[in-house]
Amino acid sequence: MSFDWPTALPLIFAGLMGLAILIYVILDGFDLGIGILFAAAEDAEQDTMIAAIGPFWDANETWLVLAVGLLLVAFPMAHGTILTALYLPVFVLLVGLILRGVAFDFRAKVPAGRKHRWNRIFFLGSATASLAQGYMLGVYVLGLDVGLGGMAFGALVALCLSAAYAAMGSAWLIYKTEGDLQRKAVRWLRTALVLTALGMVAVSLATPFASPRIFDKWFLWPEILYLSPLPIVSALLFLWLWRQTFHLPKPDDQHAIRPFLTLAAIFALGFAGLAWSFYPFVVPDRLTIWQAASAPESLAFILVGTVVVLPIIIFYSFYAYRVFGGKATDLTYD
């Protein structure tokens, strides 16, 4: 029996695009979160925070480029539909990413007395990009509803996703820093977890009611039994992490990476729930993966390039995190 490539190729690219989005949210989430936390940090702490993300933040954004690129070339109809509905928030997202990129470099080159201006711009860019991403997620969950209700829900998710990024940033700082800043990061994490949990609950409750099809996928028997571990395990991880914040940092800084890995696991579980909810649609209840996909010949050609590029991105990411592992050191510019 021959392999059904026309059916399999859109699934492969949907999986690759989903993987790129998840990795982006986890990795760029922590450096966006650190930018948001700039508002609560002192000047000396901000230098250490930049040192904690400096070697990684460019590489982290590569995953966003990959995800959007795959959406464009593999699912052009979906790309057009989604970008049409979300044109303004995408524009705001790009402005935020540009601002934080410019501020990241300029704060290192201006006199010390002017650095605070670029620190504020770095915070503004990070917060703007995070809010835009959250708004787009909220509108997407409701089937690209750009009415008043969709906009209000998008605003709620925007705040909660920004808090989730701040939680990721706090967890990364617990791993990468020590002393007073590390203890501050523990307090920031404890606060951000509340809004993070609220956001996941809001999205989890809204998604099944956005469509009767999605409701049936979650609440009919036996699906409800098979899917129950997703919310249960997520809630247990939230509870465990909340309790851990009262016992961090541990002596000799043991297991400092655990809060970050726990949040990454929570994000992955939430993403799995969304993927199950919307499958097989890439545009909720409008376009399926196969309806939106490019021609099989085009997908086969693109897959060859992806097979070459993706391992390089993965290798570089692992290499960068390995080389620049350990605690962030004092920030210097030669």
TrEMBL record:
UniProt keyword Nucleotide-binding, yes or no: no
Keywords: Cell membrane, Membrane, Transmembrane, Transmembrane helix
Membrane topology note: Multi-pass membrane protein
Stretches that traverse the bilayer: 12-41, 62-79, 85-106, 118-142, 148-175, 187-206, 218-240, 260-279, 299-319
Main subcellular location of this protein, as a coarse class: membrane
Residues forming coiled coils: none
Location in the cell: Cell membrane
Family according to the record: Belongs to the cytochrome ubiquinol oxidase subunit 2 family.
Protein name in UniProt: Cytochrome d ubiquinol oxidase subunit II
Native organism: Mesorhizobium album
